[in-house]
Amino acid sequence: MSAQSELHQIGTEAEASAPAAGGCCGGACHGAAATPAAAGSVTTVYEVKGMTCGHCEAAVTEELSGLAGVSSVQAVAASGQVTVVSAAPLDEEAVRAAVDEAGYELLGTR
Known about the structure:
By secondary structure, this protein is an alpha+beta fold. It contains three helices and four strands; from the N terminus they run αβαββαβ. Strands 2-3-1-4 form a four-stranded antiparallel beta sheet. It is globular, with a radius of gyration of 19 Å. The termini are far apart. The model is unreliable at 1-35 (pLDDT under 50).
């Protein structure tokens, strides 16, 4: 076996045994990619302080998904951005209360 093929095998074994990307949970609680917004829907990007991992993303997503009219939520801890698709513009105080309930701070919209 050549040194090159041995290195390739070692790299492959290391990749196979490494946990999936995604922070503390290995990505297990990350949602799927955002679905396209339906016609007539409103997409708003919020800035949320305090999210650090997939668990944080899931907590914010769960709370915001419970608001009336919300059809999609995508939270990204790395950027602090939460994209919400809803049937109509959401009341900012309702969004703030939901983010607060999840344990984070709504900084505003982008």
